[in-house]
Amino acid sequence: MNNSVSKPVKAFAFAWVFVVIVGLSATAFESLSEGLPGRKAESLTAQLLITEYLDTGNREVFAGHSICDISYPDTDRLINVLNQPVIRDLLPESLGGSSENNLAGARDVLFHLHCLMILGGLSLLAAPSRVSARGIG
What we know:
Helix content: over 70%
Shape: flat
Distance between the termini: 26 Å
Number of helices: 7
Structural class: mainly alpha
Strand content: under 5%
């Protein structure tokens, strides 16, 4: 029994997959290039509002702003969360917190262990090929 596919069919399938991948990539690139600048502006607005609230404690900072500007659906809940000391300690320094200093040690450990993580991942990838080469699998 010969289940092979003819060369023209393989060539057509390859060309079709290539066109689909190029089309999806172009669509994704276009979507990202349109959406990211707007999202960045919204994030900066939210960061400025939160920073101003943390500096002044004035609830009126959030008045008149939409959910998109605040990046949180309920301003009262956001204010309650921001008033918790544990949350304030977790905020980055740009928002008046100190989490960047608290997490520096963990970040450094993970950064230095990246070689071990890569080697572990590669060994997991190689394990099935060694098992099938021995005839176990």
